[in-house]
Design a protein that fits this description.
- The chain is of the alpha/beta class and 188 residues long.
- 44% of the residues lie in helices and 11% in strands.
Length: 188
């Protein structure tokens, strides 16, 4: 099986997308080796370190924060990704504006989890992406707050922790869908 690339996108690549990037390997467990997980920001300052508060939250949740530097979203990153997951609708839209051909593999994290319905997919995890793309037009629209993970920048630590917990819940469900043959918990 070839490596499956997941690209998480937020605004500054300091909070939401680094949290997702660094927690997903922990949620995939032994299956993480089949994945390349990266993140970027639509307005990131390339080379900037992750927020120290994000690093602490990631470590508290069992992820590894060391060695992270911010990246700006680029067409090349989108092209190299098997799935692009924005932390809000504006991030998904930014990816599709840069690469319209990426529409069928670009979602918000919450949208992807909702559209895959907690199912497990046999074979390539690309089947989960195809399922989500096919389900997109057959499901009723949801309120923006269902898909958008609010930016915790400048907010109290408790709100950053709530944001990370929401991302972590979605990642646990996503890991169950993507990690073919893994026995992963779906709750969290």
């Amino acid at each position: 099986m070839s490596v499956f690339t997941v690209l998480f996108v937020c605004t500054g690549n300091l909070y939401r997308s680094p949290i997702a990037e660094r927690l997903l390997p922990a949620r995939l467990g032994a299956g993480a080796g089949g994945f390349r997980i990266v993140s970027a920001g639509t307005a990131a300052r390339p080379g900037a370190p992750m927020s120290p508060r994000s690093a602490a939250v990631i470590e508290d949740l069992g992820g590894l924060s060391a060695g992270f530097t911010a990246r700006r979203l680029s067409a090349e990153l989108i092209d190299s990704a098997d799935v692009v997951l924005g932390l809000a609708r504006e991030h998904r839209e930014a990816a599709v504006q840069l690469r319209p051909a990426a529409l069928r593999r670009s979602f918000t994290l919450e949208e992807f989890v909702r559209l895959t319905g907690g199912r497990r997919f046999e074979g390539d995890p690309g089947a989960a992406v195809a399922c989500a793309a096919a389900a997109r037009g057959r499901t009723a629209p949801v309120a923006p707050e269902w898909d958008d993970v609010e930016d915790p920048d400048g907010r109290p630590l408790s709100e950053l922790r709530d944001c990370a917990a929401r991302i972590d819940r979605a990642l646990r469900r996503m890991a169950a869908a993507l990690a073919v043959g893994q026995d992963l918990p779906v709750s969290g």
